[in-house]
Design goal:
This protein is α/β, with parallel strands linked by helices. It is 31% helix and 37% strand. The chain contains six helices and twelve strands. The strands form three sheets. Strands 1, 4, 5, 6, 7, 8, 9 and 10 form an eight-stranded mixed beta sheet that branches. A two-stranded antiparallel sheet has the order 2-3. A two-stranded antiparallel sheet has the order 11-12. Helix 3 links the parallel strand 4 and strand 5. It is globular. The chain starts with a strand and ends with a helix. 35% of the residues are buried.
């Protein structure tokens, strides 16, 4: 499995990441959502460079121009709820993509003990398509795997791109064992060293869903 870590090369992703992490700037939920969207746009462009393309001819007012268009059908898959602004960044670039949505949530049995449940799935057929599966925070990798397993009920994609803003090293290790190595590419804005007893990434940025949309009851 190829892992692309944007933090390894300085870019604007690092600037947006610093604002997402900053406890003072986080108080502005609009800016938080916009920064998630911006990182999604940058990742979408980089992923687009990995697709295969076919030649087409386009009529212009003065003649015919040779152009290229993706030869692959892309499906953008997103895990609710923090994934929505991140998804919008991808969708603004892959504007002709099909879309899939999964809700994965923690159900606590005890204070620090929980299971992940899938409650909602809406997806087109995935057979032979390129699946871009996005979730801003990749803490343990369990939600990502369960969402992928749910999506497999809609068919087998030809390639999977997993995109996250921040991943823990534990999640990276987990994903490498849970996804098909030969056809999965992992894109991350940064890799943090650990998770805490509540399975939040450290240093991370906190709860991305709460910061984007408000604290849930």
């Amino acid at each position: 499995m190829e892992i692309i870590n944007f933090d390894a090369t300085p870019s604007l992703v690092g600037v947006y990441m610093s604002e997402l992490r900053d406890i003072n700037i986080q108080r502005d939920p609009l800016r938080f959502r916009i920064n998630l969207e911006r990182i999604g746009q940058i990742m979408a462009y980089e992923i687009s460079r990995r697709l295969t393309y076919e030649d087409i001819e386009v009529a212009t007012p003065l003649g015919v121009a040779p152009c290229k268009t993706p030869a692959e059908q892309v499906v953008l898959g997103t895990i609710f709820r923090a994934g929505i602004p991140f998804h919008q960044g991808f969708l603004s670039y892959f504007d002709r993509a099909e879309n899939a949505f999964v809700s994965a949530y923690r159900k606590y049995k005890e204070k620090e003990n929980f299971d992940v449940f899938i409650e909602y799935l809406a997806s087109p057929r995935l057979d032979g398509k390129t699946l871009i599966l996005t979730d801003p925070m990749l803490a343990t990798g369990a939600s990502m795997e369960l969402s992928y397993r749910a999506l497999l009920t809609k068919g087998l994609p030809s390639h999977i791109h997993i995109a996250s803003v921040i991943a823990s090293q534990q999640a990276i290790d987990y994903i490498q064992g849970a996804f098909p190595q030969e056809k999965t590419t992992l894109w991350v804005g940064a890799i943090d060293p650990s998770i805490n007893e509540h399975s939040y990434i450290v240093p991370g940025l906190g709860d991305a869903g709460d910061l984007a949309y408000g604290i849930k009851d």
